[in-house]
Amino acid sequence: RTGAEGGAVIQHPYSDSILTGYSRSALATHVRHREANVVFDIGECPDDLVDVSTVFLTHTHLDHAMGLARYLKMHDADTPTIYVPAASFYAVASLVGALSALNSEPGSFNPIIVPVEIGHVVSFKRGNATYSVSAFAVDHVVPSVGYRMERVTQKLRPELVGAAPAVLKEI
């Protein structure tokens, strides 16, 4: 079905996860996981992405990253986190500096920019849920990474969390 900004809305059939996104080659690409409040690529940064606290960039082609200027302007009072392929770290950091200068407020944009290598794993909590995002290799003409996101769940009864394996084996 269609969501905000004309993008697709997908609900995972086995969970309450809702993904929204839009992709048009050479124009804009983004995929948002609403419950985790993250977006993979930022596209043109449509209105429904402005409140997202974490961005994972797969690569820096403009259709995946050109919305950074708008995103940063909407976050100039806080500190969002932006994960980028490690080989693009300095280019993105330079872009952030240039955007701050163009905004007539050098240093006004203060995101946390994290370089990502293949195999890098990011774990974070949102509400009662814990998520894990891991980077894997992809083949593209510019430095790129793919991301796999998982919701980490505890299947153990609360009183057994942290129990020694021998105790669990006896049950």
Uncertain ranges: 1-5
- Largest sheet, strands/sense/barrel: 7 strands, mixed
Query: Which secondary-structure class do the elements indicate?
Result: alpha/beta
- Rg estimate, integer Å: 18 Å
Strand fraction equals 25-35%
N-to-C SSE string, H for helix and E for strand: EEEEEHHEHEEEEH
Total number of strands: 10
Q: Report strand order across the widest sheet.
A: 1-2-3-4-5-6-7
Overall residue-averaged pLDDT value: 86
Categorize the overall geometry. elongated
Helix content: 10-25%
Number of distinct helices: 4
First-to-last CA distance: 46 Å
General description of the model:
The protein is built from four helices and ten strands. It has helices at 62-65, 68-74, 89-102, 165-170, and strands spanning 8-11, 18-24, 28-33, 38-40, 54-56, 81-85, 112-116, 121-126, 129-137, 145-152. The protein has a seven-stranded mixed sheet with strand order 1-2-3-4-5-6-7. The chain is elongated. Mean pLDDT is 86; it is low at 1-5.
Summarize the structure.
The chain is α/β, with parallel strands linked by helices. It has helices at residues 62-65, 68-74, 89-102, 165-170; strands at residues 8-11, 18-24, 28-33, 38-40, 54-56, 81-85, 112-116, 121-126, 129-137, 145-152.
Helices, strands, pairings?
Elements: E1 8-11, E2 18-24, E3 28-33, E4 38-40, E5 54-56, H1 62-65, H2 68-74, E6 81-85, H3 89-102, E7 112-116, E8 121-126, E9 129-137, E10 145-152, H4 165-170
Parallel strand pairs: 4-5, 5-6, 6-7
Antiparallel strand pairs: 1-2, 2-3, 3-4, 8-9, 9-10
